[in-house]
Specification:
Radius of gyration: 16 Å
Largest sheet: 7 strands, mixed
Order of helices and strands: EHHHEEEHEHEE
Structural class: alpha+beta
CATH architecture of one domain: 3-Layer(aba) Sandwich
Shape: globular
Distance between the termini: 31 Å
Number of helices: 5
CATH class of one domain: Alpha Beta
CATH superfamily of one domain: Gcn5-related N-acetyltransferase (GNAT)
Length: 157
């Protein structure tokens, strides 16, 4: 499959919004809490939020025949905020190529550490790309333990 990866533009927003919404809807219960699903669903329509992302983040899209197959976003401090691949195109190295683009961009912009929130379904992906996975256990008011994960990767020069 000959998709291309390029820096996303605000004109890509309608297609990105659709992919973002599809991903949250289809995988939300496997990845996010109910509160996160509600928040992410609200963000889909928040044009001001997305305008700020386009102005300050490195956002790349994998495209094929005008369709967006996947997106990745990294903030200026190296935090990977978004990595989505359309459900019909998963397992075709799109996420890997998007990630490599972000890593190359980080190096170009002298970002030496990449970080990301890591979900159980994405843990293997981040581990396979050299991230150290760190568990953060928090105790709720009711005494339950909630474990979340983050990934950290030190980039070599």
């Amino acid at each position: 499959m000959n998709f291309e990866i390029s820096r996303a533009a605000i004109t890509d927003f309608p297609l990105m919004k659709h992919l973002f919404y599809q991903t949250v809807s289809n995988f939300g219960s496997k990845l996010f809490t109910k509160e996160e699903i509600k928040e992410y669903s609200r963000l889909v329509t928040d044009t001001k939020y997305w305008k700020q992302k386009f102005d300050h983040n490195f956002i790349f899209a994998a495209k094929l025949n005008g369709e967006i197959l996947g997106i990745i976003s990294m903030g200026p401090t190296g935090i990977i905020e978004i990595l989505f691949v359309h459900q019909n195109y998963q397992g075709r190295s799109i996420a890997k190529k998007l990630y490599q683009t972000i890593e190359d961009t980080a190096r170009t912009h002298n970002i030496s550490v990449l970080r990301s929130h890591v979900f159980p379904l994405t843990r293997a992906f981040y581990e396979n790309n050299g991230f150290e996975i760190i568990a953060d256990v928090k105790e709720t008011a009711s005494g339950e333990s909630i474990t979340s994960y983050s990934g950290v990767k030190q980039l070599s020069k």
